[in-house]
Structures are given as structure tokens and as C-alpha cells.
Design a protein that fits this description.
Elements: H1 31-42, E1 48-52, E2 61-63, E3 68-72, E4 79-84, E5 95-99, H2 100-108, H3 112-118, H4 121-129, E6 154-156, E7 167-169, H5 185-208, E8 242-246, E9 252-256, H6 273-300, H7 315-325
Helix pairs in contact: 6-7
């Protein structure tokens, strides 16, 4: 049996593409420049992985054009393992081949972890494929669908071919072959296509196997539960002057302590503002007046020592007596 082209069973992308300068040409660019442009856009198609019978996904490898995938070591790029894949729908097969980028989209899908724990991905995909080359009868893959199964699928930048047999033209249908990680209009468009394809596949696998992807609602913590406490009697922790008590609904709320409760209709006696003003005036002024009187008496020679007939003749002594009067209660 000769060589043949295999396709990613999920997205429909070919797993082998080469640069042909006969169909990819430009008078303004050299061969190396054209090859570099081609590789940047389309070389990602050549990196593949295998979903094995146990549901695990291998490291990246290369399709060898003879119905098998050679898994390569990351550093040396030497063949570590060769796996027979689903070649043109015939058995036996040791795994299903998909693009490495497709595998990344699968693993990053929100349903993958849940479904892959309960469902064997190899069995689930093989069941959907039946005896077809891909899942194109189950999923909407876009313009690539009509090319799946052709030999030597490739791309051209020349409008004269206009999507000829096995050749996709840039500006028409070739966007399905462009690297979806590129920040270009074609790259973004292919990203959306692969995202939708993978989402449809994971949703179908989960639904067919009756796996609910809805996360169970966590049991609310006591602090998260709705409380019947109001603004007047809030939930604990309680502020100073409040204590925790259970209300009629059984929730602990903060209530004012009985000693701190003031009866609503009884107002505490407040001193009269006029009295306060008078008292403050007396307290602030009377002792100063008495002290002034002491000085005045001394100046007139009429200041005597307390309970004595002896006059105060010394100015220093008079001041002492006057100062002693300051601060006395009147």
C-alpha cells in the first residue's frame, strides 16, 4: 500500500502539508521568504497527537504517511514510539489521531475534566465516528469538510486555482488551514471554528453519557445564610452595650443590654442651660475677685493675717495670700 493523507478526525485538518513553490509563488519574494510565510501559517497542521485506547493523549508526533504516528522525544526528536491510528476507517487501530492544537483546545474546554474522568475519550469518539474517516457527519467543520479524504491536500496563494481538486486558495477557503493562534483575520476565524467544533463535541459526549457538567451548589456556611436579624438588631459580632440573643426565628441577633435600655417616653433630667452659664461664670470669676480684694486691702494697709491683728507689711506675703485664694470654691 502506498502513502496517503490522514485527517484530524475532530477538525478535519490534514496532518501532513508541504510547501510547493509551483502553486505557492510570488515574484516579489524569494523561495526562502515564501517558505517561511507558508510555515508560519500552515506548518502547525503537521504536529499531531494520538488519543490511545485507554483514553490518554500522547506527546506530539508526526504522521508517517503510512497509517501510523511516530511519537518523538522533545529534545532529540527521535522516534520514541510508533502508534497505528484509525487509517481510512479500517481496523485494527491503537489510537485516534488529532492535531496537537486540537488536543490543546480539548484539554482547555470547561467540560473536559469532568467528562474524561467518567468517559473513555477514545471509545466516545470512535462510537461517534462509526466507520467514517472523521466526525464531519456529527460536527460542523466548515469548508474543510469537502476535502476530507483527498490525497495531498495543500494550499495556494494564486487565485487562478480557485479551490481546485485538493488545493485550497488563500482568500477563499484556505483560512481553515491557518494557525488558529495567529493574531490575523484568518487565524481568528479558524480559532472560532475550532472552538465551536470542540465545544459541540464535548457537549455531545457529556450529553450522550448523561454527565451533568453543572457544579453542585456548595452548602452555605452559617455566615452565608440569610439572617432574620434587622438593622436595629444586627447579626453578631455584637458591639459594646449589646448582647447576643436568639429571636423568634432561632437566629442569634444583637440586642441592647437591659441596663443600657432607656425608656422611650421618659427623658433624663437635664440641668437648665441658664444655671449652667451662671455656675460657670461664678466658678471662673469669684476666686479672682477675692484675690483682687486681698491686693486692694494690702495697698490700703488694711490686710491682716488670718485670725490675727498683725498686719501684712510684706508685698511677697500679700501675693502669697492672694494666690492662695485662687481655685477656692465659691
Amino acid at each position: 500500500m502506498g502513502q496517503w493523507t490522514e485527517f484530524d478526525v475532530i477538525t478535519g485538518n490534514p496532518t501532513i502539508m508541504y510547501f510547493f513553490d509551483e502553486i505557492y509563488e510570488d515574484n516579489k519574494k524569494t523561495y526562502k521568504q515564501l517558505e517561511k510565510d507558508f510555515d508560519k501559517k500552515y506548518n502547525w497542521n503537521n504536529s499531531v497527537v494520538v488519543i490511545k485506547k485507554d483514553g490518554s493523549i500522547t506527546k506530539p508526533g508526526r504522521y508517517n504517511s503510512y497509517g501510523s504516528v511516530d511519537i518523538l522525544t522533545p529534545k532529540t526528536k527521535k522516534i520514541k514510539e510508533t502508534i497505528v491510528i484509525t487509517n481510512q476507517g479500517f481496523k485494527p487501530a491503537e489510537g485516534i489521531m488529532i492535531n496537537k492544537t486540537t488536543a490543546d483546545y480539548l484539554k482547555n474546554h470547561k467540560l473536559f475534566k469532568t467528562c474524561s474522568k467518567k468517559v473513555n475519550m477514545f471509545s466516545a469518539i470512535q462510537k461517534l465516528m462509526k466507520k467514517d474517516f472523521s466526525l464531519k457527519k456529527v460536527l460542523k467543520m466548515g469548508p474543510i469538510e469537502k476535502y476530507i479524504g483527498l490525497q495531498d491536500l495543500n494550499v495556494t496563494n494564486q487565485k487562478k486555482y480557485k479551490n481546485g481538486y485538493g488545493i485550497l486558495t488563500e482568500g477563499i477557503d484556505a483560512w481553515v488551514l491557518v494557525d488558529p493562534k495567529l493574531n490575523t483575520s484568518d487565524g481568528k476565524k479558524n480559532h472560532q471554528r475550532i472552538t465551536k467544533v470542540v465545544d459541540s463535541l464535548m457537549t455531545k459526549i457529556c450529553a450522550d453519557n448523561r454527565i451533568s457538567h453543572n457544579k453542585p451548589k456548595p452548602t452555605p456556611k452559617p455566615s452565608d445564610r440569610k439572617s432574620s436579624c434587622g438593622k436595629r438588631n444586627p447579626s453578631p459580632p455584637c458591639k459594646k452595650g449589646f448582647e447576643s440573643k436568639k429571636n423568634k426565628k432561632g437566629n442569634s441577633c444583637c440586642y441592647k443590654k437591659k441596663a443600657d435600655i432607656i425608656k422611650p417616653n421618659v427623658k433624663p433630667n437635664k440641668p437648665s442651660p441658664t444655671l449652667n452659664k451662671q455656675n460657670t461664670k461664678i466658678k471662673k470669676g469669684c476666686d479672682l475677685i477675692i484675690a483682687q480684694n486681698v491686693i486692694n486691702k494690702f495697698s490700703k494697709g488694711k490686710l491682716y493675717y488670718y485670725r490675727s491683728k498683725k498686719k501684712v507689711l510684706n508685698t511677697k506675703e500679700a501675693l502669697k495670700i492672694a494666690i492662695s485664694m485662687i481655685g477656692n470654691k465659691c
